[in-house]
Amino acid sequence: MNEHESGQLLLVDDDTDLTELLSEYLSNEGYQVQCAHGADAAEALLARQRFDLLVFDIMMPGRSGLDLLQSLRPGLQTPVIMLTGRGDDIDRILGLEMGADDYLAKPCNPRELLARIRAVLRRAQPAANASVATRLVQGAIVLDAGSREVTVAQQPLLLTSAEFNVLMLLMQQVGRVVSKAELTEKVLHRKLTAYDRAIDVHVSRLRQKLAAQGEAEQIKTVRGEGYQLVQH
Predict the structure, then answer these.
(1) CA–CA distance, 168 with 134 (Å, rounded to integer)
(2) Domain residue spans in the chain?
(3) Residues 162, 102: contact at Cβ < 8 Å?
(4) What distance in Å separates the CA atoms of residue 34 and residue 12, rounded to the nearest whole number?
(5) Beta bridge partners of 141
(6) How many angstroms from the chain centroid is the CA of residue 136?
(7) 3-class SS at 92?
């Protein structure tokens, strides 16, 4: 299989040397890359052009990447990867809570960023596995894997790609405890590492959105094991 892919990417970082380096690397991998060196420039680009994935640096002069993300979500469904300082655990969690799909610590290796981009774009695509039921129903929740749409009591539920895939995996295994390791591997396409709270935050956001639609306590935490979608 050809590793080169295609897609429209937007890199948002005030470090012009870094964006030039990453842009050249990702362009050589088949992506079409544009750069913005601040939140205002990024918003101007997003107002007139559609992108498949956005990469935001959290620490920028003026409006931060978190400010930009907060102003764009939930109306913008485009996947977002946040670049954070290596020790900025709070910023990583805040980014995920605001709707980022993944994060990567800076200084980042271009190859690792490429792997994260491929993983996020892959999980944002409609299910290609014909053996997986395309329509899942659990109580008032209806999930369509083909169109990647979810409704609760016939009302649309807007989810990020990570939240959608968490819900789909839990609905496919309703009543079974799914470990954090399995969720991380199947949803984020990477191994669970120590202190990695990404899945916990995605589950928390999913719970909040379900609760807002009247589906509280659908997802149960099984301490030390993982998460379980309660069967109704």
Answers:
(1) 10
(2) 8-123, 135-229
(3) yes
(4) 9
(5) 138, 152
(6) 21
(7) helix
Reading across the β-sheet that carries 102-106, which strands appear in turn? Answer: 32-36, 8-12, 53-57, 80-85, 102-106
Q: What is the pTM of this model?
A: 0.77
User: Quick one: 24 exposed, middle or buried, by C-beta within 10 A (0-12, 13-18, 19+)?
Assistant: exposed
Q: Which of 79, 207, 203 is nearest to 148 (CA)?
A: 79
Q: Which helix (H) or strand (E) holds 228?
A: strand 226-229
Angle, in degrees to the nearest 10, between helices 161-172 and 110-123: 60
Which pLDDT band, with edges at 50, 70 and 90, does 131 fall under?
Answer: very low
CB 34 within 8 A of CB 58: no
Measuring CA to CA, which residue among 56, 51, 60 is closest to residue 33? 51
* Cα–Cα distances in angstroms (integers) from residue 208 to residues 26, 88, 125, 205, 211, in the given order: 35, 24, 24, 5, 5
Helices (H), 1-64: 16-28, 39-48
User: pLDDT tens digits, residue range 36-56?
Assistant: 999 999 999 999 999 999 999
Range 135-229: architecture per CATH: Orthogonal Bundle (1.10)
Left (φ > 0), alpha (ψ -120 to 50) or beta: where does 221 sit?
beta
- What pLDDT is recorded for position 216? 75
- The residue type found at 102 is D
Residues 118-151 as b/e (b if ≥16 CB within 10 A, e otherwise) read bbbbebbeebeeeeeeeebebebbbbbbeebebe
Homologous superfamily in CATH for domain 8-123: Response regulator (3.40.50.2300)
